[in-house]
């Protein structure tokens, strides 16, 4: 531990590693720099010492200057006389102080951010890749022109505006643009060895998620092919790829890497490729290639390097921004919990999951009293309370309203669900000093991917969780059904598709049955029949439940009403004065402007309002304070008759009868069938008839099957009788002649 602490202090101290590194790396980078012999002396094609010094500043900041001064002094005082060596070292330090001061003043605290940060790239390009190299070349050339340094052994000639100076300037610019990230990686890794692992992690993270192994292999093979042609194959007239002509072909290949593989991979690889290509330039450059051609090649590589690195930085940032946006889309910003999109993704990526649904209906009432903040705080706190019971890959997901859902890994999690249920019972929130402990319903089921109908499944779980509130136990969705969950949902979706197709292609069948009036004023009740894809009848309770669940009530009512009005209109000569009763969903009854829409339909088909009777299920919406009361009043004012259907089946029927204003009352057939065997049913029928007569309402009795029932109901004052005794149910169009076919399409 003591040795490790001392080593860390040595790496961080300006008088430790920062003092030694420049003295070691200065001669090493000079040897690695690419030089070219010209008639008037050596010239650099890539000058690495300046890139290394800038990397030292990016790692150590101002603490690097003692080491830089020491390294420059050791290097130049061993090669030049004291006067020229001091002038060169002072020039170095003045250039670095000027450029680094401007850079630090502009970027402030973010000066040491790793390479690839797009927001810092303009500042770094100006100060570190342009200002410092330009000032360095300008001042060093000034020293050479002024004769302050010996020209022998120097890379700077006496003539400032020469090809020699241009090549030196381009070499310094190219090194500061491309080689600083490599030097930064070396220096930073020596200071903090863990940075190398972090760089490898970031390098992998910057790869596009869509990159496949095949793409990587193809790209590598193409790169290897180009390098082989440039470095191994002898140049000739018949093989242009083995000459400098093949060098521009690196451009599309590296742009491919910039767009797909990220900034770190592209920048580091391109720097290494430049070093290899420059060191082995004799392999592909023609022997007659002169300094002018080298200057053009160097300028092209400099411009290409800038474009390549900018493209890599932009695409890397775009991928990072897109990843953050996708991550934000998986989280609810108000509750700070993952949402349904995250749940769907987790279910798709898991081999098997158990969904545990939590419903808190009282939370809706409490939030109305204490505000929405209570709901937000309660759900967030409840999720945090459940987190200790979850494994790393599991989570609590936010649902709209007052529900939450948990995803557990694998199936058969009954023991864990029992622990979670026990933990739920212990949870109590204190709000303004008051304990908030609403009831929580829990249901669960196991699912396997792919979960194609997640929303419908959550709806089933919600219903079971509400049942859990009354039963007091955790409900298993799969034990409550004779069929698996996914099969039931698929069947429901298939039925929904059948209903929608039937609405588009007139696939429903209208069934009619005669209603016997005791005074001879008969009418016909009409309802819908549906067949599935196998030509099997679908029970009305099944497809009515789907219609209500998916909000197709008005579409179905509108289709049925238009079919009935079309039938009356087309057969008014054969069936004059026919009256037809049809159902009207309660949700359709609450539709704004319902009476006006029905009035427009009656006018389109030239049908009188008295020919329609609407059956409406008893509901709290039919009371004076409900949404359907006004619609009933408007329909009656229009001239249509309204009947309360299945009276006695729901709750509070007598209270509803007291408040509702309707024309007819249709008794539930269960009372009629049992009135001879159950005196209570007989008393209900008798009392209902008395109350209906007081309200001046006519009474319809359903399921009348015997003559005895007919006689008794007539004595009780029933006005209309329906059942097999008066006629079997049959298709509506059978009321007219058999050879008269029904219409295929309705007029617009």
TrEMBL record:
Q: Kindly give the SUPFAM superfamilies that the UniProt entry links to this protein.
A: EAL domain-like
Compartments where located? Cell membrane
Taxonomically, which superkingdom? Bacteria
Q: What CDD domains does the record tag this protein with?
A: EAL
For whether the record's keyword set contains Transmembrane, the answer is yes
What is the membrane topology noted in the UniProt record heading this document?
Answer: Multi-pass membrane protein
Query: Could you tell me which residue ranges the EAL domain spans?
Result: 492-743
Q: Which UniProt keywords apply?
A: Cell membrane, Membrane, Transmembrane, Transmembrane helix
Transmembrane annotation, as ranges: 15-34, 41-60, 80-103, 124-149, 169-187, 216-234, 254-280, 292-314
Is the keyword Nucleotidyltransferase assigned to this protein?
Answer: no
PANTHER family associated with the record: CYCLIC DI-GMP PHOSPHODIESTERASE PDEF (PTHR33121:SF64)
What protein does this entry describe? EAL domain-containing protein
């Amino acid at each position: 531990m003591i040795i490790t602490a001392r080593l860390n202090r040595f790496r961080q101290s300006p008088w430790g590693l920062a003092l030694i590194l420049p003295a070691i790396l200065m001669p090493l980078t000079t040897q690695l720099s690419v030089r070219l012999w010209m008639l008037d002396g050596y010239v650099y094609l890539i000058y690495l010492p300046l890139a290394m010094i800038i990397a030292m500043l990016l790692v150590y900041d101002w603490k690097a200057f003692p080491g830089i001064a020491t390294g420059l002094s050791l290097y130049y005082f061993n090669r030049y006389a004291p006067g020229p060596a001091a002038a060169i070292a002072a020039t170095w330090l003045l250039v670095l102080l000027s450029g680094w001061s401007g850079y630090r003043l502009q970027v402030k605290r973010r000066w040491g951010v790793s390479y690839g940060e797009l927001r810092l790239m303009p500042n770094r390009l100006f100060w570190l890749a342009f200002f410092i190299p330009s000032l360095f070349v300008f001042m060093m050339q000034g020293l050479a022109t002024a004769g302050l340094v010996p020209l022998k052994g120097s890379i700077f000639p006496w003539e400032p505006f020469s090809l020699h100076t241009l090549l030196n300037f381009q070499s310094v610019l190219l090194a500061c643009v491309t080689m600083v990230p490599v030097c930064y990686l070396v220096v930073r890794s020596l200071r903090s060895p863990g940075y190398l692992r972090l760089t490898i992690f970031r390098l992998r993270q910057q790869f596009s998620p869509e990159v496949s192994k095949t793409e990587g292999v193809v790209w590598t093979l193409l790169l290897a092919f180009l390098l082989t042609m440039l470095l191994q194959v002898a140049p000739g007239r018949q093989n242009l790829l083995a000459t400098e002509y093949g060098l521009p072909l690196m451009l599309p290949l590296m742009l491919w890497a910039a767009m797909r593989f990220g900034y770190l991979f592209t920048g580091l690889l391109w720097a290494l490729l430049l070093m290899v290509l420059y060191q082995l330039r004799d392999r592909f450059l023609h022997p007659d290639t002169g300094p002018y051609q080298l200057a053009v090649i160097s300028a092209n590589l400099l411009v290409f390097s800038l474009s390549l690195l900018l493209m890599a930085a932009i695409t890397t940032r775009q991928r990072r921004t897109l990843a953050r946006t996708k991550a934000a889309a998986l989280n609810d910003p108000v509750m700070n919990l993952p949402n349904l999109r995250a749940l769907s993704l987790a279910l798709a990526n898991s081999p098997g999951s158990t969904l545990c649904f939590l419903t808190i209906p009282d939370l809706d009432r409490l939030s109305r009293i204490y505000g929405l903040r209570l709901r937000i705080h309660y759900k967030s706190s409840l999720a945090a309370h459940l987190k200790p019971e979850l494994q790393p890959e599991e989570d609590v997901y936010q649902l709209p309203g007052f529900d939450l859902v948990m995803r557990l890994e694998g199936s058969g999690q009954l023991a864990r669900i029992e622990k979670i249920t026990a933990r739920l019972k212990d949870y109590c929130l204190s709000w303004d000093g008051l304990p908030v402990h609403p009831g929580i319903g829990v249901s669960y089921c196991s699912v396997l991917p792919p979960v194609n109908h997640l929303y419908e499944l959550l709806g089933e779980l919600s219903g079971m969780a509400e049942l859990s509130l009354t039963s007091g136990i955790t409900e298993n969705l799969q034990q409550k059904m004779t069929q698996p969950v996914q099969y039931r949902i698929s069947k429901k979706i298939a039925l929904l598709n059948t209903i929608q197709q039937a609405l588009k292609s007139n696939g429903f069948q209208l069934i009619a049955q005669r209603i016997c009036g005791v005074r001879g004023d008969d009418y016909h009740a009409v309802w819908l029949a549906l067949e599935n894809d196998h030509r099997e009848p679908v029970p009305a309770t099944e497809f009515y439940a789907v219609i209500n669940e998916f909000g197709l009530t008005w579409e179905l009512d509108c289709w049925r009403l238009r079919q009935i009005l079309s039938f009356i209109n087309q057969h008014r000569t054969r069936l004059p004065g026919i009256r037809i009763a049809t159902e009207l969903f309660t949700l359709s009854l609450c539709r704004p402007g319902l009476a006006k829409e029905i009035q427009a339909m009656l006018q389109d088909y030239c049908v009188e309002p008295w020919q329609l009777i609407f059956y409406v299920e008893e509901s709290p919406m039919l009371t004076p304070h409900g949404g359907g009361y006004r619609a009933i009043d408007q329909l009656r004012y229009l001239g249509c008759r309204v009947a309360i259907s299945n009276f006695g089946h729901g709750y509070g029927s007598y209270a509803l009868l007291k408040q509702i204003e309707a024309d007819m009352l249709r008794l539930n057939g269960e009372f009629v069938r049992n009135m001879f065997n159950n005196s209570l049913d007989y008393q209900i029928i008798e009392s209902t008839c008395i109350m209906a007569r007081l309200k001046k309402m006519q009474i319809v009795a359903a399921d009348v099957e015997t003559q005895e029932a007919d006689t008794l109901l007539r004595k009780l004052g029933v006005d209309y009788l329906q059942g097999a005794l008066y006629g079997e149910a049959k298709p509506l169009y059978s009321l007219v002649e058999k050879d008269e076919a029904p219409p295929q399409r309705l007029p617009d």
